[in-house]
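Holo prediction — nicotinamide-adenine-dinucleotide.
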Amino acid sequence: MKQGIGIAGFGGRMGHVLAEEVLAAGAILAGGFDRTGVEGPAGVKRFSDIASLAGACDVVLDFTHASTAAGHARALAAAGTAYVLGTTGLSVEDEATVAEAAKRIAVVYAPNFSPGVNLLMALAERMAAALPGDAYDAEIVEMHHRQKVDAPSGTALGMGRAVAKGRGVHLEDVMASGRDGQTGARKPGEIGFSALRGGQVVGEHTLLFAAANEQISLTHRAFDRRAFATGAVRAALWTAGKPAGQYSMMDVLGMT
Ligand code: NAD
């Protein structure tokens, strides 16, 4: 029988905190799985792969690696199990596969599940709509722990998309990431990204709007992975009874 919440990547940094937060929320923790040789949290049932986990629970929390997302999305769609996807660094093709799965199951896909960051993204979109792109240069600076494998962070890209949406442009057309060397002058309307890596920083993001006569910055700092885990568990519980479709954390928070 399918029941409760499963965790893909339950041996990871997020996986451990997610397991605690599922139980703290009073929900049923169906179990999890991870790569061969990677232990999950003590006492949590281990499944051999995504298909067997999907067959045993109502919803899967996935915080693993971008290379797994397409396969996981297909397996969950086949099992009719809802999908809360937090993994970052997905390619455009991976995202298309996730969107395809969302025709059959409820999918909540968010680069950042913290309520504070989602509020910041809503503000970013409104500010970008109000501040003309040729006068207010938008720059996003992020810092994460030294183990992080993708850059810019999914959250930074999400903030960039929010700014682009506010300005009525596509991020891909105006994105300037990792400037280095003879870059030439900044182009009007660019959205710039800089990524810092070091230590054990859980996640820091600053969005700057820099104009000739003033500068505005919005900063979010996550002190603990629990900021993401509680939001992801909230999203998992929210999927109960939801029709197939792709949702964001904004939907979960009722901010759309
Ligand atoms: P981590 O490396 O500590 O954990 C990832 C886990 O996934 C590991 O245990 C690893 O063994 C497992 N894994 C990798 N490939 C696998 C596979 N093919 N099959 C099964 N398990 C596999 O990383 P982390 O810090 O826990 O982050 C995981 C992901 O979540 C990253 O993409 C990170 O950017 C993202 N993340 C998202 C949010 C958010 O709010 N959306 C917050 C934090 C982290």
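READOUT: Residues 9, 11-15, 34-35, 38, 63-65, 68, 86-89, 110-113, 154, 228 surround nicotinamide-adenine-dinucleotide (CB under 6 Å).
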